[in-house]
Amino acid sequence: MREEKHIFTMLVDNEPGVLSRVVGLFSGRGFNIDSLVVAETVDPKVSRITLVSKADQPVIEQIEKQLNKLINVIKIRDLTGPEAVKREMALICVNAKSDHRAEILRIVDIFRCKVVDVGLEHYIIEVTGTGEKVAALLQLLKPMGIKKIARTGPLALLREPS
Fold this sequence. Notes:
Layout: E1 4-13, H1 18-28, E2 35-40, E3 46-55, H2 57-69, E4 73-78, E5 84-95, H3 101-110, E6 114-118, E7 122-129, H4 131-141, E8 146-151, E9 155-158
Antiparallel strand pairs: 1-3, 1-4, 2-3, 5-7, 5-8, 5-9, 6-7
């Protein structure tokens, strides 16, 4: 069996220790977490955890069963397929010496990004989109010299019926 990345989204009670129990379930079974995003939902008593992990299908099913057993987990979904809208966000600090500034701004425009900070020799760029879009932007900026990156990993929501 081959391992694939899976995007789990969970609604959980917004209480201290819930995230620790979810993460503990993964680490206790030797599963790695590729990315993790947590935030309060519209209901302040509920948080959404979006977690990405890589495993084969039987292991993914086992993870879902174990997560469903946790008392503070209200609902869990695997949003890996096309029925979900997925986006990532990244902040990228890139060298912006005078001979590269115009080229960087053209790339930012093409990718519909924003320059959110400017210095004498750097730009900080904000990008939102699919993982492929973020990866393509990073590939184009790499020759300019990427100084640092902060990246969310995917966030996902199930599509509403049309």
